[in-house]
Amino acid sequence: MTIKAIAFDLDDTLWAVTPVIIRAEKLLQAWFDEHRPGLDVSREAMGAHREVIVRNDPSLRYRITEMRRRVIEATLRHGGDTETTAESMSHEGIEVFLKARNEIEFFEGALSTLRHLSAQYTLGALSNGNADIRRLGLSDVFTFAYSAEQVGRPKPAPDLFHVALETTGLAPTEMVYVGDNPEHDIDPANECGMHTVWVDNGTRDPGTSQPTVRISDIRDLPAAINAVRGEP
Q1: Cα 105 to chain centroid, rounded
Q2: Helices 110-118, 221-228: inter-axial angle, 10-degree rounding
Q3: Do residues 182 and 196 touch, judged by C-beta distance below 8 A?
Q4: Ordered structural domains, the chain, with CATH
Q5: With 70 as the cut, is the pLDDT of residue 232 above it?
Q6: Given the DSSP bridges, would you call strands 144-147 and 175-179 parallel, antiparallel or unpaired?
Q7: How far is it, in rounded angstroms, from Cα 34 to Cα 31?
Q8: Is the entire prediction scored with pTM above 0.90?
Q9: What is the mean pLDDT of residues 173-201?
């Protein structure tokens, strides 16, 4: 079997995302405590604003950076800031959040595994999230990277998988997709005709289809790719 490219989900496939988001939200609150004392930008405090904003613009469900920025802006305006000040501070605040959001801790062996595979295959990232390979220092590893915000629809819609195939010019059978979420990663990639590797971290139920290979540790990925290729 000829495999030329491997595409990856990012959050919870290469690192645990929940502690990253918790830390980023705490640093955002600390920034506002310094620059706008008394403003509560916790998830709970901004929940009502988020609900209204997403109801008015459903596309923000996958445009998550812009959604968070608009929620911050709405919170500032609700707190008495002028429209101009609220907009300006929301842009500053979202940059604080994004910087922290891209300070991640890879699963053990994940980075070395990526660098090892990048010497043999074209690697890419396909994510519903807003991790940035440039901020992550992975521009030398990934040849392509697309988010749901860029293509206009989140997984499990097929758009991200289609754009990966269009970008590389490969047939689906020449690409392997690696992810932790059976519903958002494995099932739609299978439907597109790709080979799939499910990184089963024990937190999700199986999907409606079977992965080509199932692993529980990202360090086992090179062996999984060999198995897809039909090698021992």
Answers
A1: 14
A2: 40
A3: no
A4: 5-16+105-228 (3.40.50.1000), 18-101 (1.20.120.1600)
A5: no
A6: unpaired
A7: 5
A8: yes
A9: 97
